[in-house]
Structures
1.
Amino acid sequence: MWKRIAAAALGLALLPVWKTGADAQDDALIDADKLDQWMAEYVQENALDRDYQRFSVGFCYTGTGETWYYDADQWMYSASLYKVPVAMLVAEKEAAGELSQESAVLGMPLQYWESTALTYSNNDSGHALVDYLGGTYLGKCSDMTIRYTQLADSYFVEDFYQSSYYTARYMTQVMETLWRGGEEQFPHIIEYLLPAQPDAYLNLSLKDRFSLAQKYGAYEEPNGNKNNHIAAIVYTPTPVIITVMTRNVGDYQDRMAEVGAYLADYALELDAKAEALAAAQAAAQATQPPESQLPEQTAVAPQAQPEETPMPEPVPDVPEQDVSEEREIQRWLLPAGLIGVLLLGAMTLMALGGRRRRAARRRAQVRAYARTRQKQTGEEQPQQRRGEYNPRH
């Protein structure tokens, strides 16, 4: 009993400590304060915070799933960004076997619609995919794509459903879903994004360093607002997602390329930080007492049983609680048995003593009666000498 309690206490002591709050933040790779400070200085230096301007950034380090956002909940017209989640909806049908690249969709092979919509951002192809899915020209199937994010329904505004307005947070999560699903869940989508805009947007600063699967969007609204966006998977050693959405920002491609270059370099810092953390954890584990190791058991081939020999019935597993109760009963059974034996012996001795006392009283009564009888009759009783045989009749 006490051994089991001690073993349980030792096991609890060796369990890893669950970290919450500040402790959990200490384990995060992304230094949000560092990125916030850099972004604030960059925005001020390039005058990106003027009236009617918007500059939103989303960043995801896929190695841990950690994210960082700057002003990422500003709703802006998506322009051609919508073609990515719409193409993902169609690609899922291909993954399920409902379609193939050669399948006729609205009179053309699916391959044509997807490649021209994603690689060259052809608007007619994008609209054809929306029509095939049963969406509307303005809504762009937005309601169908919420499941590509972890955002609650309450996050989305009416402009999202009716006019295809996106945020950097939404688009970053869509691109992360695309990367994680890959070819198995979304066949050909990344394939068609890799050659897009080879000399523009993030490729201005990164094309000689990393591969990119990027989708741009550009649209000037009737009210004069100029929307220019980019969302990309950047294939650093550990890929990252970078989204930059802008409104009324001059030299927007240069700004996007500079932000993309900084975040790609930061991804390399995160890789180094992750390696150092993994090495520290491995060293800490190496200093801990090794767990008890059971000797390897050599598998023994079961011997064939004669056909006439019946197989024994399987012994049912005994629940651990029942085993504990049985051991507890066995522990107390021996002392209880000894006490019972002692009580039974005492009672036996008391009974034998009582019988002897009653027999002695009867003998005394017989002798007293004999003496009384002798006095009354005057007869002399014969005396039995020691060792003399006096049979009874």
2.
Amino acid sequence: MKLYSLILSLLFFSNILFSQQLNLTLDDCIELALKNNENLKNSILEENISKAVSKEYLAIGLPQIYVDGGLQYNYEVQKSLIDIGRFMPGVPEGTEQEVQFGQTYEGRFDFNIDQMIFNGSYFVGLSATKELEKLSNKLTQRTEIDIYESVSKAYYTVLNTKSRIELVNSNLERLLTLLEESKQLYDNGFIEKLDIDRITVSYNNLQSEKIKTDRLYDLSLFVLKFQIGIPLNQEIKLIGNLNEDILENFDFDLSKFDYNKRIEYSILKTDRNLKSYDLKNNRSQYLPQIYVNYNYGLNTSASSYDLFFDSYRWKNFGTVGLKLVVPIFDGFLKRSKINQSKYKIEQIDNQLSFLERSIDLQINQSVVDYSNSKESLEITSKNLDLALSIYNASEKKYKEGVGSNLEVLNANAGLKQAQNNYYNAVYEVIISKINLEKTLGTLYNN
């Protein structure tokens, strides 16, 4: 019963903790995404794998020390036939005698040290493993940049949808106020029922739009939760509003652009370096290889296991050796590999050239998109002021009895459209800003 009560208590408190609402800024969302994203976790693990591979390759050039030994029981000792007439005077040639080589019990113990002195391929490989670590790190950076982009866009999409909900609610309030005032005028005989019906139709249409907008808001929240790696049923509230203040202090200078700021370009350059090391490795195969080794050991043999363990029967032996390997001819295998490496480097050079031209085009497109969205924002901002002025004037005329409710409805529809256009313009300029920063390679620097 105590265990059961403990489990219930833990579940209760975990539910309370889980049900707490999270108040998140953009930085909070990005921090959660960087912490929870599975692709980023795997990319970091790949970095660790690259470091482990580098250490593994380094170990090849260090002294290799090992011991080797064993005991052997020859239950059937090998025998051979030899012509003893060649060794024993007076014995006719061709006289064969069975001879046993070895004894029933054998033992051996070796201590060995092998050391590589020179191998050109090894030293090239050491440098290549360091470059592989750099490549893994840059791939992680690319994943972080993609996360920053996707989370930022999802975050501002939620804010944009939230602003649309606020607009719908404010429009519903205005229409509801207008509908109530119109009903009073109708009851006093100042307007016709047709005027009431017009406002009611607009009000009902706006309620339908609110339902769709609420659903779109929930969907955008789900997308954001997925991007930052939290459960979809976790309650969150975003801190911030969609307005022009987000664009403050944003500036860019195309004259300072460097292709290496683009992570894709930097990754391709690192890949080229790896291909260059592969070329050096193939060329190094023409160089000689030098190894030294040291060996010391003990061995013995005996016909009886009682004698086998007598220390005086174990005899010492040892060797010191130098091994030189000089390649002479391999059927042009190395030359073929060298040509392959050269062609691969040329391929990457072509890819770099194409990527540079693609980046130039992307920058021009991003700058144009950002400029156009900025101009659209300025225009929609002015239109919003005009639409608000028109609505206030129409409402004033209607209340004074010199205007129609149709004029007020049209002015309200124009105001509603201007408000939507304004917030959509703010959203579009923010998205174009993110795209421009990514194109320039300045979107995210950890």
3.
Amino acid sequence: MGGPDSPGELKMFLSRMFKDPAILPYSKPVRHLLSYIISRSRYKKSWKKYQMIGGTPLVRSTCHTARALQALLGTSYAVKYAFSYSSPFIQDTLYDFKSEGISEIIAIPLYPQSSFTTTSSVKADIKKVADKDPFFKITVQEEFYAHPDFVAFWIFNIKKHLQEHGIENPTLVFSAHSIPEYYVLKGDTYPTGIINSAALIAEKLGYHYEAAFQSGMKRGAWIGPDVREHMKTMAEEGIDDLVIVPISFVHENLETMYDLDHELIPYAKEVLGIKNISRVKLPEADLLFVSMLTDLVLKS
């Protein structure tokens, strides 16, 4: 989605996001009105969260991933990155390719589990450009959560986390960003992708696991179970050794570093009394992850 680096950039980020029909499924006038209201009412509060985590590392991490992918692919390919709601934008990056005479493009939305709210939004932005300009021949990669290297990426990093923290028999809590139930009723397969993704990883590790959803908005119905409520149930059942795995993300961002680290984990410790709880961090330009991207490109 992107990473704003100032209050003004954040206001524009929120404005662009809530104008997106993939985020708010309303008519254009309604979206633009809501975008205006939400972006101006939320950006100051949201910016304080960014300040608490020292700014989002998402842009830097994405850049490092692109460089690592370029190194593995070699000079036969040109690798660029783009965002939906902050610079560099998808449209601008596509035209950068055109300025270099490159028409055959493989786009990889960095969402492991496809959703109308994420992958479909990227596809729509690409389609706007491709429909207007016959120069482009663009292939869009589908979800990749079942790719063996993606599964191996999580297994390696979970094992590393357990070893570093001396954890022997945890319950893995796979946490994914929630989406409105409206989209699931319209056929969005995202919840199924999350559940399948968690199962592929946990079953190879042999640990008990749960899947839950985070960061849903207060208004409207969002898919669950909500991770807070689910952890409350686990605490009541005496489960006291939890490791959170942010399964829907590939880079550290506000939802991992603030929602999980600054809100969820302190809530679990201080309110629910769960003493042993930690989170698996997302490494930058991890070799297994970049190898998976390389394989997706070469097979596309």
4.
Amino acid sequence: MRSTHSRAAVLARARGPVTVESLHFAEPAAGEILLRMEACGLCHSDLFVAGLEKLPLAPLTLGHEGIGRVAAVGPGVAGWAPGDRAGITFLGTTCGACEWCAAGRERFCPKQTNFGYTLQGALGDYALAPASALVRVPEHLPAAGGAPLCCAGWTAYGALREAALSPGQSVALFGYGGLGHLALQIALHQGLRAAVCDPLEEKLALARAAGADTGAPRNVDAAIVFTAAPAAIPQAFRALRRNGTLILVGLAVASYELPLVDTVLKGITIRGSYLGSRDDLAAVFALAGQGILRPHVHTHALEEAPALLDLMRRGELSGRAVIAF
């Protein structure tokens, strides 16, 4: 049996350090595919997983927004061949039988698995994945620019769709990082009036250059919180007009005290948004193919991943850091 050597960014234990380790992969088992990775973005969800008190799987290879080429297919795999281009997202396998799967909302399946959490992730030279969990990636997309679309772009698009806004309406985006800068591009393309809030002036300068208003937002139709900083939620709530919608995306274990009087009397809607539909992901790839959606990426070597995660934890990364293999 052939063994494939790989390097990967590994979390050995809950709340432990992320280190680059050597791994070996055997031939893929039935229903599996071995991918030779081209690129993988770093996501704040990687930090969220690394900070959990307990892990469902350890040691754990992080990463869930990757693009690679099929290196080998396991027995029983149909529709994939060596050389095909595939994407890994946070969403792994689903049951396919529950009410959410039947309704095309499989991202809410209670039996789902997730790359870089309950499945080994994509932040390595190679990744082993269930064939059913992979997505097709257009050939024309550059790997480094396309990888963030598998999570950041997909999530940003899904959050804006959840807001259900029409051209001419207003949206405030809280957090101008990997998701926020893509959400701004999508919002402007949709004809929305967009404001961006971020504590770092250098990020606000980038947002202004991209077409956003960076003054304190007031009376907006929707506010989307991409950051995991809990302090952003009350700011976003206060920015809403009557009948406005608050969309929460950033993951944090902190609690938020809901202003009940204003929520009720102003008719505020509060929604959580997680990834998007499969059609949303296809739309994101299409926007990128048309040159409308352009991730702002910085490419790095795998060895830089631990330090980059520390920068992300401090909120000091602009755009998306992508590991290129």
